[in-house]
């Protein structure tokens, strides 16, 4: 049976702009809660995706949030969706026509039949790809040159699909043949690879011009009922990507980052065994993380973060209590 949060259609629905938080809890059906996102049903054909300030490491949510994180992720996603329509259509309907309490952190989107693989693109060797390379000399069955160092730029970006984990499990890197079996449609996977590589090339070139290296990222794609492939979910954000400052890039070790790798590094150094419950993040790490997310937004978009808050109609003083709750699988960066 298809999960209603993973399907879509295309008829328009009425405005949600006047829906208050109490009304939302009564009138919007909560379909799923991820580690970061809460997804509500809006009629038969739309979803309301609300991005919280929750932050997770090693698939476990920490008890304290990072202020404005949800707004940064939503603002960056909106930025990329608007820039990439010539490459691939996307699911965005509106980021303004949403409940008042969710403005700045929510998007009204189409329901889609989501593809059951993560579309990961790597331009640099790091993360799980680095571990696989050290063990086998390849990533997802793609042989790589001998002698690569951690964080080295690859000769060309590679498409390295991954499974979508169930609750409590971890995503698993798979080769193209296995991903095609999971998808059940090899030509479709070839199209997902083409689109993912083109989207990454566009994003990496833009980010590099803003002083940021887009080391890797993951895309989620789905299809409309007519078979059109559509870009969905979050796009090239600090949660789904690795962003490195270009001016400090030095291969041979891990890189400083604008993404949540900073929190992962703190969690690893804190002696936590990575089993629930996750420890509270110290205030200074929370504030530094927020600053990194906001700086990533401002560098990439070329505008102050406050411009997104104004354009989206966000009220910084209002945020639903439910945004700090909920646990379900959402993959870390690749």
Write a brief caption for the model:
With 334 residues, the protein is of the alpha+beta class.
Walk me through the structure:
- It is a single chain.
- This protein is globular.
- It starts with 20 loop residues before the first helix and ends in a 22-residue tail after the last helix.
- The chain has a domain at 114-260: ATP-grasp fold, B domain (D-amino Acid Aminotransferase, Chain A, domain 1, 2-Layer Sandwich).
- A hairpin with a 3-residue loop joins strand 1 (29-33) and strand 2.
- It has helices at residues 21-27, 69-83, 127-136, 176-183, 186-209, 261-269, 283-301, 305-312; strands spanning 29-33, 37-42, 46-51, 56-57, 60-61, 92-94, 106-110, 113-114, 117-124, 138-139, 142-143, 153-159, 162-163, 212-223, 229-232, 241-245.
- It is α+β, with helices and mostly antiparallel strands.
- Strands 8, 9, 12, 13, 14, 15 and 16 form a seven-stranded antiparallel sheet that branches. It has a five-stranded antiparallel sheet with strand order 1-2-3-7-6.
- Helix 2 packs parallel to helix 7 and helix 4 crosses helix 5.
- It has eight helices and 16 strands.
- The longest helix has 24 residues, at 186-209.
Main traits of this protein?
single chain; 334 residues; alpha+beta; D-amino Acid Aminotransferase, Chain A, domain 1; 7-stranded antiparallel beta sheet; 5-stranded antiparallel beta sheet; globular; disordered C terminus
